[in-house]
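quick q for whoever's on today - can somebody do inverse folding on this one?? i tried earlier but teh output was garbage lol. tokens:
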């Protein structure tokens, strides 16, 4: 479930509250979407994750509720609320849940032309 409507600018948000948990689903809400990158907040129900992928861009991930396993090039990283990690460009990676969790994902495209 993806909501690609940008958030209103110059307004305060409690990021962990802008996306709800939905049973058996991953929910993605776009905070900012530009040609130079995007910021999204995601919620994952128990048992839901992201399949392995490789992207040509660096990706910053921060866990804002719960805990998850981020696997980068076969190396497991256990993250809990407040933890963050940069997934390097061209690195095989996937997200495995450890119960329900929410995260912010930031992708910056400039500098890769």
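ok took a stab at it. sequence:
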């Amino acid at each position: 479930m993806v909501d690609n409507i940008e958030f209103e600018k110059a307004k305060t948000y409690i990021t962990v509250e802008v996306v709800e948990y939905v049973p058996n689903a991953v929910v993605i809400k776009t905070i900012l979407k530009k040609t130079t990158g995007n910021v999204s907040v995601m919620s994952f129900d128990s048992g839901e994750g992201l399949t392995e992928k490789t992207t040509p861009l660096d990706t910053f991930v921060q866990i804002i509720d719960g805990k998850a396993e981020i696997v980068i090039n076969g190396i497991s990283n256990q993250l809990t609320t407040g933890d963050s990690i940069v997934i390097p460009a061209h690195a095989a990676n996937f997200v495995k849940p450890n119960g329900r969790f929410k995260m912010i994902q930031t992708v910056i495209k400039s500098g890769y032309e």
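fwiw The first strand starts at residue 2 and ends at 3. also The domain at 2-108 is CATH 2.60.120.10 (Jelly Rolls). so keep that in mind when u check it
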